[in-house]
Amino acid sequence: MINLGSEQVQSSLRKAAKQLCLSTCFCLFICPLAIAKSYSVANAEGLKQQLKSVKAGDTLTLKAGVYSGHFAIHQPITLTGEKGAIIDAGGIGSAITVYVSDVTISKLQIQNWGGDLYERDSGILLQDKADRVRIDSSRLSGSGFGIYAENSSHIRVVNNIISGNPELYKLDRGDGVYLKGVDAPVVHDNQISHVRDGVYLETSTNSLVYDNRFHSAQYGIHYMYTKHDEAYGNQVDNVDGGYAIMSSEFVNLHQNQASNTLDFGVLLNISNHCIVSNNRLSLGHNPQGTAELGNEGKGIFIYGARDNEVSHNLFATSDIGIYMAMGGEKNKIYGNQFVNNKTQVKYVGDSLLEWSHHGRGNYWSGHMGWDANHDGIADKPYRPNDNLDKLFWLYPEARFLMNSPVVALLRWVQGQFEFGPATGIVDSFPLLSMDSIDGERLR
Question: Which residues are bridge partners to 431 per DSSP?
Fold first, then answer.
C-alpha cells in the first residue's frame, strides 16, 4: 500500500501537477491551433488561397486594390480591408458568401454583384445557420440584394452605406437588407438608398432596427409575418411608403420619421397588437392620386388591422391624415396631432368609432371648440368625418361644393338632427392645442 501522506509521495505529486500545468499552458498559449493569427493579401488569387487556409479566429486584411471575383468564407474569421480595398463581383453572382457562424466583415467596398433575385445575388450572402455574423463600416453597391440572410440568428448590420441600381425599376431591385426567418437581428446606423425595400423582414422575430436613413425605395422598413419587433429613430424620405407592417404582431414602431411618401407613412395591414407612437409622418402626397381609386397619400393607413394602439403621432400636410378601412375598427387611437392634412380622416365603414382614451382625444387643426374650464379639451365631441364627407368621397366631382354655404347649413342641420344610426369617427375629448398632448413628447 502506498502511503499518500509520505513526504516523498507528496513531492512526486507536486512535480507531476507542475508538469501537467506547464503542459496545459504550453498547449493553450504556444500551440499554433490556439493562437489567432493576422494575414494580409494584395490580390484576388491570394485572397482565395488565404480563405482556404485560415483558421478559426484569424483576421484577414485586404490591402488597397481591386479584388475581382467571388469569395467564400468557411471559417469563423474577421475579413477587413485597408482604405481602397474593393471587391468586385463582375456583374454576376454574389460577391461574398458566408457558410459559417461568428464571421465579421468590415471596412470593405463591395460592388457590382449580380441582379438575379431568384438566385439571391447579393453583396454578402449568408447561408442557412450562419449565426452571429457582423457586417459593419462597409460600402455596398449593386443591383441585387445588399445583404441577404435566411434561417439564422443574431445578425448585426451596422454603419454601412448600401445603394442599389437607380436605373432599374424599383421592384426589380434587391432589398438593402433582406432577412427571412432570422431571429434577433440588429440593423442600425446604416444609409440605404435606391433599393426595393430598405430593410425587409419575413417570418423573423425579435428584430431591432434603429437610427437608419432610407430614401429612394419602395418602403423604408417592411415587415411580413413577423413577431416582437422594434424600430425607432429611423428616417425615411422619398419613398412609396415609410413603414409597412403586414400580417405581423407585436411590432413597436416609435420615434421614427417619414416624409415625401407617395402612399403612406405607416401601413397597418392585417396586423395585431402593434404600437405606433411618437412618430412624425408628413408630406404624404401622391400627385397621381384620385379619390375614386383611393390612392391618395396617407399619414397612416389602417386596413383590416385590430387591437393596435396609435398614439402621440404627428400626421401633417398629407392628402389624408388617417385612412381606415376593411375591419380596422378595433384599435385605440388617441393623443395624436392631425395638422393641415387636406382630409384629416377617411373612414370607410358602418360603425361609430370613439377615438379617445381615458378622457383625452386628439388635436385637430382647424377645429374651433369651446373650452369653458380651460383644461385644453373641447367641451363638446368632434366629428372629423360625417355623412357629408362620405358623400364627397363617393362623388369626388362635387368637392368644389365642400366650403359652400349650402354645405355649411347641411352640416349644422346634421348636427342638430341625427338621420339614421350614427356612423363615422367621434372624438369625445378633442384637444384644443398641441401643447395639451400628454404622454411622451414628439421629437
Answer: 363, 377
